[in-house]
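[step 3/7] inverse_fold.run input=structure_tokens len=156
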């Protein structure tokens, strides 16, 4: 009777290291592409917020002009949503105006907290500035005048 000797061949340490080096190189080349793709997604999100605000404010103003109910939304003397019914805009009244108009689930906060979710607000005079907080390159703003209804989206 002859005994059969079976050889089991596994992966050597050198082969394993070579595979890990190749995978590491591939990951190092792919990571910046994925990072740029996620950063590039911030602009459409911010633009969507600006367009939603612009459309909502115009709808509320149209209801006001036609003499209908604004749905409990406080408006300025000219019918534009202002969160307070008149007076100087503050971060708090701007936050209320944004939430009244957009009715979003995204966080809207008073003041600015970079790299946070949602929009931050500043208010002064007849102006509200909404700042897209998750990303700072480029900075993304919605500028809103509650007296004239002027709404601009700016990226710098």
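[step 3/7] decode complete -> sequence:
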């Amino acid at each position: 009777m002859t005994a059969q000797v079976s050889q089991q061949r596994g992966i050597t340490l050198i082969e394993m290291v070579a595979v890990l080096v190749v995978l590491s190189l591939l990951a190092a080349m792919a990571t910046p592409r994925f990072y740029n793709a996620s950063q590039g997604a911030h602009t459409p999100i911010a633009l969507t917020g600006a367009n939603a605000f612009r459309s909502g404010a115009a709808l509320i103003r149209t209801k006001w002009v036609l003499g209908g109910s604004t749905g409990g939304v406080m408006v300025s003397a000219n019918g534009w949503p202002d969160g307070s019914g008149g007076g100087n805009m503050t971060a708090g009244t701007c936050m209320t105006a944004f939430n009244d108009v957009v009715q979003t689930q995204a966080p809207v906060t008073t003041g600015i907290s970079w790299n946070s979710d949602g929009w931050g607000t500043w208010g002064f005079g007849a102006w509200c500035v909404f700042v897209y907080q998750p990303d700072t390159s480029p900075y993304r703003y919605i500028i809103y005048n509650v007296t004239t209804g002027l709404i601009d989206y700016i990226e710098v």
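[step 4/7] annotate
Residues 10-40 form one domain.
The CA atoms of residues 33 and 39 lie 10 Å apart.
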